[in-house]
Specification:
heterodimer, A: 255 residues, alpha/beta, Rossmann fold, 7-stranded mixed beta sheet, 17% strand, globular, B: globular
């Protein structure tokens, strides 16, 4: 429950919870970047004034409880199928604003086909793709996005590309297609990047409102729990190591 | 009512459009290609959405989305494609979304062939995917009945918020017959969907989900489903009886086999063999009670299927030893002639 605190004389309230967010507590692990990213999505919905016509699609994975955190209509999708579900909703009711929020296991492994074809059709939806290079909720298994050498519970000796494949750069793949309007990779490990990520999310929603088509914001995230790192070290790892494999910036932007 | 000569697949498509279908999602597969093609040609012209998906998996999840958004929606496929849809169907069942799924069964298992078969009975009537759920399963035996049952499928699915399946086969999909198409539905007659995701404006938000991590919560969701299924079992069992009054042998057959069995009854009667037929129209809910009542009067209940004996299990559950329950089935897309089945009938009467 939120608590109303009286603002003392002479003080001005300059920061509050976005209207789009409910009072439910996050179920994310402490220090994980999901919390920041979820909030940025909520802020974007607030700023565009679209809460009452937005439908979110919750994935399977760490954001499986996403519907609880928001105050808008929500649909829970099967693992990897969010872009297909979003397609069904958007085609049935084009006036709705439809977004998916998916992890890298969901979007880049089991949901690769649904993602690529929704992008290729230029479905007028917004996709928030949270890439932490691991399966968080199931216990730290290797994802297609896991870095070479990275230890996970299914690559205990480290990911060996010749055995386990190379990191899958799905945003680069999607950027090759004619369908998408906007493909970008962002991060939230410091304030500067949080501001940039927020602008990218806003643009991805604005594109939908303007009918420009498929927009995907990949956001490099952390998993302190399964990376066996402190939140601060995890953030540094993204800033110093992860970005070498997954460089930040726009991969496609039709303007 | 307009009476036209139509192929089964096309009659089903037209009946669906006249039933207020808004969104149709598909992936091509034989023997239901004409259904896909008819939709591609007709549905966009009449204000609906036609979308060819990248896979059966995607198509059923698009149905999930459109159903969640509160419109009448449908997909169609044939056996291997329906197998791929099972994950999505399980989610749709638990999320309590109405929709219609057409399965034009073909020979299996595996890639099988494209000839008529009834090997998907278990999959259709016992759930099919994971978890405790049922579909409402309607089995037409003629083209006109297929058109009629499409309308019923949408109505029952909306009424109970349970997905409905039209279970037919390549024979019904491919053949042409005169059809009386249903009148276009009045949009006012399509039930409201206050639970749909349409934007939370002026109402509490809606969430469509098949998920509850708490065992007590998930049990509660399951109990609601089971209560709905019991109500459907009480209210929606449909079947046809042919010459059962004085029958000594009762044939039980559905769909294409039900149609052939009607001819068998006529041929048997010409020989003086007191033969009747019970043709289930709803495969789920199954007509256990009507079969049980007839089993008390007849000596033999002969189940005839294009499978190795799937519905036969339900027939034996209904008969419970009241009569002998032999079985005759054909496999692999082979369709037996009425004369071949008559030979089976002669083994037990006369």
């Amino acid at each position: 429950m939120s608590v109303e605190v009286a603002i003392p004389e002479g003080y001005v309230k300059i920061f509050s919870k976005p209207r789009a967010l409910s009072d439910a507590k996050y179920t994310y692990c402490p220090g994980c970047h999901h919390g920041i990213i979820t909030r940025l999505v909520a802020e974007a919905i607030d700023e565009l004034g679209i809460l009452e016509r937005t439908v979110g699609i919750a994935p399977v994975g760490c954001a499986v409880f996403l519907d609880r955190f928001f105050n808008c209509d929500f649909v829970q999708a099967a693992h990897g199928r969010a872009c297909a579900v979003a397609t069904g909703i958007k085609r049935a009711r084009p006036d709705l604003v439809v977004f998916t929020y998916q992890g890298d296991g969901d979007l880049a492994a089991i949901g690769t086909a649904e993602t690529i074809h929704a992008a290729n059709r230029g479905e007028n939806i917004t996709v928030i793709f949270v890439n932490n290079g691991i399966y968080g909720m199931t216990g730290g298994e290797m994802a297609p996005t896991t870095l070479p050498g990275q230890r996970t519970t299914t690559t205990p000796l480290g990911r060996e590309p010749r055995l386990h494949g190379f990191p899958l750069k799905i945003s680069e793949m999607l950027a090759q297609l004619d369908g998408p309007a906007y493909i970008t990779r962002q991060a939230v490990f410091d304030y500067k990047h949080i501001v940039r990520a927020k602008q990218a999310i806003l643009k991805a929603f604005r594109n939908q409102l303007e009918g420009k088509g498929f927009s995907l914001v990949e956001i490099l995230s952390t998993c302190p729990t399964n990376w066996r790192m402190s939140p601060a070290d995890a953030g540094r790892w993204v800033a110093e190591e992860v970005v070498k494999t997954y460089p930040l910036g726009d991969l496609k932007d039709v303007g | 009512m307009s009476r036209v000569l139509m192929r089964g697949n096309e009659a089903i498509a037209e009946a669906a459009i006249r039933s207020g279908l808004k969104c149709y999602f598909c992936y091509p597969i034989t023997p239901q290609g004409e259904l896909v093609e008819y939709m591609a040609k007709e549905l966009p012209k009449r204000g609906g959405v036609f979308l060819q998906a990248e896979s059966e998996v995607a198509a059923i999840n698009m149905v999930y989305g459109a159903a969640a958004a509160g419109v009448r929606t449908m997909t169609s496929s044939s056996s291997p494609g329906i197998s791929l849809k099972q994950e999505g169907i399980s989610y749709i069942a638990m999320a309590r979304l109405p929709c219609v799924i057409v399965n034009m069964m073909r020979g299996g298992p595996g890639l099988g062939n494209i000839a008529p078969a009834q090997g998907d009975y278990f999959q259709a009537t016992k759930g099919g995917g994971h978890g405790d759920y049922h579909l409402i399963v309607l089995a037409p035996s003629t083209v006109p009945e297929a058109a009629e049952l499409v309308r019923l499928a949408f109505e029952l699915s909306d009424k109970y918020r349970v997905p409905a399946m039209i279970l037919a086969d390549g024979m019904i999909g491919q053949m042409m017959e005169p059809v009386e198409l249903p009148e276009p539905v009045d949009p006012k007659d399509i039930p409201e969907r206050p639970w749909a995701v349409t934007g939370a404006k002026g109402r509490p938000r809606n969430v469509i989900s098949s998920f509850d991590l708490e065992p007590e919560g998930l049990r509660e969701m399951n109990l609601v489903l089971q209560d709905t299924y019991r109500e459907i079992e009480r209210s929606e069992v449909r079947w046809e009886e042919v010459e059962t009054e004085d029958a000594e042998i009762l044939l039980v057959a559905y769909g294409t086999m039900g149609r052939i069995a009607k001819t068998v009854v006529r041929l048997a009667r010409e020989e003086g063999l007191k033969t009747g037929l019970l043709r289930p129209i709803t495969l789920w809910p199954f007509p256990y009670e009507p079969i049980r009542k007839l089993a008390e009067r007849v000596k033999t209940v002969l189940t005839v299927e294009l499978s190795a004996g799937q519905m036969w299990e339900d027939v034996r559950l209904a008969v419970e030893g009241r009569a002998e329950t032999p079985f005759y089935g054909e496999l692999g897309g082979v369709v037996p002639s009425p004369k071949r089945i008559l030979e089976e009938v002669r083994k037990y009467v006369g």
